[in-house]
Amino acid sequence: MQGLSRSTWEILQSWGGYNYSQIRNIAGDVDRVDYLGGATFVTNEGAAGGAWGVSLGNYLNLNINGGIIGSFSEWVTNNPLYMHEYGHTFDSRGYGPAYLFKVGIPSARSAKRSTQISGEPQGVETHDFQWYEMNANRYAARYFGRYYGVNWNRPFGLPGDTIETYYPRRTRIRTRR
């Protein structure tokens, strides 16, 4: 069923994701390619700067600082960025041809203009609270909770913080310690 959806309903982002992944590979920006849960993860392990990801259809392109250690499924379930990007695959299925216009392009613009939120841990930015980003987090929390036992409220980052702190599923008003 997913194969049919990707070659019809999701064709724009599937085609874009495949080609973007190939261009990165030709340019030498790909260290490894992995497959999990129907998605192709294209990773640059030696990226300078911060970690980031782009999801187009079932092609998830990620930049990280350092190598993937251990089994890939274990790596993904311990790295919320990978789970978050996977969450966008559900939006791709749901929005079909509108995905690029409702999620993809607005997300790219938001990420480019994003700023650190005062009172939040380093890395929690305005982009993280856009509806489409929180939607991807909700999908990811549900999927990885159900199939891999991931608890979105488990400790992550600074003491007292959780995955939810950095990958919110809903807006919040919060004061830091």
Proportion in helices: 40-55%
Biggest β-sheet: count, sense, barrel?
4 strands, mixed
Q: Which structural category do the helix and sheet elements fall into?
A: alpha+beta
Uncertain segments: none
Describe this structure in words.
- The protein is α+β, with helices and mostly antiparallel strands.
- It has one domain (2-166).
- 46% of the residues lie in helices and 12% in strands.
- It has a four-stranded mixed sheet.
- A hairpin with a 2-residue loop joins strand 1 (32-36) and strand 2.
- Helix 4 (80-95) packs antiparallel against helix 5 and helix 4 (80-95) packs across helix 6.
- The longest helix has 18 residues, at 131-148.
- The radius of gyration is 16 Å and the shape is globular.
- The termini are far apart.
- The model has no long low-confidence stretch (mean pLDDT 93).
List keywords for this structure.
single chain; 177 residues; alpha+beta; 4-stranded mixed sheet; 46% helix; 12% strand; globular
Write a brief structural summary.
By secondary structure, this protein is of the alpha+beta class.
Topology readout:
Layout: H1 2-7, H2 11-26, E1 32-36, E2 39-44, E3 52-56, E4 59-63, H3 72-77, H4 80-95, H5 99-113, H6 131-148, H7 163-166
Helix pairs in contact: 4-5, 4-6
